[in-house]
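Retry 2 of 3 after timeout on previous attempt. Resubmitting structure tokens to design endpoint.
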């Protein structure tokens, strides 16, 4: 997958029987809706919408907003801190969610 906008990218690291596989997503919202199936280990990653650094998605803070323009139009942005997510929410509106809450919604 080609990453067209690094601010909204996602990745999943999968391990089964010693074999490792990486899946890249152009839009973290699509990654969150993806069911990877059964693996020995699953790691979720997303890029911070401000710094573009890779984060552990399970501990990151998410903003879901119809006003946030993402590559695949899911409207999901990821932030390393709640303060950064609140700042984005002031600009784009929407709802601040955890990884688990957002996975359940998508």
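Retry 2 succeeded. Sequence:
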């Amino acid at each position: 997958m080609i990453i067209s906008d690094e601010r909204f990218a996602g990745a999943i690291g999968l391990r089964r029987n010693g074999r490792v596989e990486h899946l890249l997503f152009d839009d973290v919202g699509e990654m969150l809706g993806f069911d990877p199936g059964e693996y020995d280990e699953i790691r979720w990653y997303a890029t911070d919408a401000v710094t573009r650094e890779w984060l552990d998605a399970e501990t990151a803070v998410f903003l879901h907003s119809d006003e946030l323009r993402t590559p695949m139009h899911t409207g999901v942005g990821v932030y390393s801190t709640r303060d950064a997510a609140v700042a984005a929410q002031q600009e784009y509106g929407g709802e601040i969610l955890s990884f688990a809450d957002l996975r359940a919604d998508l």
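Attempt log closed. The first strand starts at residue 10 and ends at 16.
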